[in-house]
């Protein structure tokens, strides 16, 4: 029995699964900034295709990393106010380095640095961590959760016919639900005015009927006279 054992094994041991999801997470994050001239560049940024079980297991890993990056935003903004604009190793920078303002800046930026180190311990990729904290954190700053979605594909994987799925970041190419339009409201005054006014079709039909009756009457009189 697998009581209290969450997650899929996927036919791999723990170290293999950890390395596999680390590579998949880095691939998904790094797909946001890819040169189009590269031979294996993805067609759509921020999207990878894998099997359905792997995509479902990867989703919480990615979303926890984005939550870490979002938590670092207020600390980084607070530290930015205390940071100097002087060039590094200049006289003005050395003066700021020895002042109390630097102590305040170091205390303010410390939580952001700790969160970045935690993300790096998970990904082990500096480029992916930079994209995570610079682009994804700002992109989902006002979103409380649900940063990715998993869409199952109709085509199966060649070789073993495994069910494929696409995992991507939300916010782009989102479907817009069409609004249902209700029937127009007709008041009682509109109903009476519509019923009172005869239509042109009814008038024309009445005139045609009268003409046909007169023609039939004339033909009957002529026949009787003969």
TrEMBL record:
Q: Does the keyword Disulfide bond apply?
A: no
Taxonomic lineage of this organism? Answer: unclassified sequences, metagenomes, ecological metagenomes
Organism equals hydrothermal vent metagenome
PANTHER family assigned = LARGE RIBOSOMAL SUBUNIT PROTEIN BL17M, RIBOSOMAL PROTEIN L17
Q: Which family does it belong to?
A: Belongs to the bacterial ribosomal protein bL17 family.
Which HAMAP family does the record match to this protein?
Ribosomal_bL17 (MF_01368)
Q: Does the keyword Ribosomal protein apply?
A: yes
The ranges of region (Disordered) come to: 177-226
Q: Which residues cross the membrane?
A: none
Protein name, entry field = LSU ribosomal protein L17p
Molecular-function GO term, any one? structural constituent of ribosome
Q: Name one Pfam family in it.
A: Ribosomal_L17
């Amino acid at each position: 029995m697998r009581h209290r054992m969450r997650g899929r094994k996927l036919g791999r041991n723990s170290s293999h699964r950890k390395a596999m999801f680390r590579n998949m997470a880095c691939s998904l994050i790094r797909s946001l900034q890819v040169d189009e001239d590269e031979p294996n560049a993805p067609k759509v940024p921020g999207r990878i295709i894998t099997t359905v079980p792997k995509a479902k297991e990867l989703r919480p890993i990615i979303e926890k990393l984005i939550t870490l990056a979002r938590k670092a935003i207020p600390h980084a903004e607070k530290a930015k106010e205390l940071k100097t604009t002087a060039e590094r190793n200049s006289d003005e920078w050395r003066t700021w380095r020895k002042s109390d303002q630097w102590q305040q800046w170091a205390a303010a930026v410390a939580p952001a640095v700790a969160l970045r180190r935690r993300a790096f311990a998970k990904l082990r990729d500096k480029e992916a961590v930079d994209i995570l904290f610079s682009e994804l954190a700002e992109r989902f700053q006002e979103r409380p959760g649900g940063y990715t979605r998993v869409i199952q594909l109709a085509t199966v994987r060649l070789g073993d016919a495994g069910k494929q799925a696409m995992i991507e970041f939300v916010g782009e190419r989102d479907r817009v639900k069409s609004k249902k339009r209700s029937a127009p409201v007709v008041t009682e005054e509109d109903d009476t005015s519509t019923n009172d006014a005869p239509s042109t079709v009814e008038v024309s039909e009445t005139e045609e009927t009268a003409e046909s009756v007169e023609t039939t009457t004339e033909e009957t009189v002529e026949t009787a006279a003969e």
